[in-house]
Write a structure and sequence with these properties.
Elements lengths: L2 H11 L12 H9 L3 H11 L7 H13 L3 H16 L1 E8 L12 E2 L7 E7 L5 E10 L4 E2 L4 E8 L13 E5 L4 E11 L9
Length: 199
């Protein structure tokens, strides 16, 4: 399949009534496709993917189109959103520790899901120590998070079943070494119940 066909197929998944943040619809995406404005159409479809209960196939089509268009950030985001369809969504308000405090980061956090820090979500080991779990981190609306900064982030736990009890308002901590690197307040946690599905 070529890029226009991939985008057309993805557009077929979007309900006519779905609206993006700016009020855009799938008709707008199709109009840009008709004028061979593929990148704009892709951006609109990605935005519309958050406006309805999108499916795995939708994100697969967009990821492949982004790959063929040499848009690595968009491709990574589509893969991230696909994984959220399978494993659920965890979003949090993250505040990094000041860089002058012990444990504080002195370099920015990359915003595209590459960082895999440890998280204390309240579980303890048999010895009574915090039981830490790995979750990848995506920074919303910015390419990275500066030292001491604050942002809304999305988390992709490697063991989603352990995170199911989390709810809005819960506070968890991020660790890269022994001291706390950041504190995060959960603002959304929608995780599937039952056996985890494979992505």
């Amino acid at each position: 399949m070529d890029v226009p066909e991939l985008l057309c197929r993805a557009a077929c998944h979007v309900p006519v009534v779905a609206k993006g943040e700016a009020g855009t619809t799938v008709a707008d995406a199709n109009e840009y496709l008709g004028h061979d404005e593929w990148e704009i159409a892709l951006d609109l479809l990605v935005e519309l993917g958050d406006a309805y209960s999108s499916e795995i196939a939708f994100w697969d089509l967009l990821a492949e189109a982004a790959r063929m268009m040499w848009l690595p950030w968009t491709e990574r985001w589509c893969h991230w959103r696909r994984a959220e369809v399978v494993h659920g969504v965890v979003r949090a308000d993250l505040q990094l520790v000041d860089p002058d405090v012990a444990g504080g980061r002195r370099t920015p956090i990359p915003g595209d899901g590459r960082l895999r820090p440890l998280w204390d979500i309240g579980d303890v080991t048999a010895a009574g120590d915090p039981d830490l779990y790995v979750a990848r981190l995506w920074v919303e609306s910015q390419p990275d998070l500066q030292p001491g900064g604050r942002a809304v982030v999305r988390l992709a736990p490697l063991s989603p079943q352990r995170w199911r009890r989390l709810a809005a308002g819960d506070v968890i901590t991020m660790h890269e070494q022994m001291p706390v690197v950041a504190t995060a307040t959960i603002i959304e946690a929608v995780l599937p119940v039952g056996d985890d599905r494979k992505a």
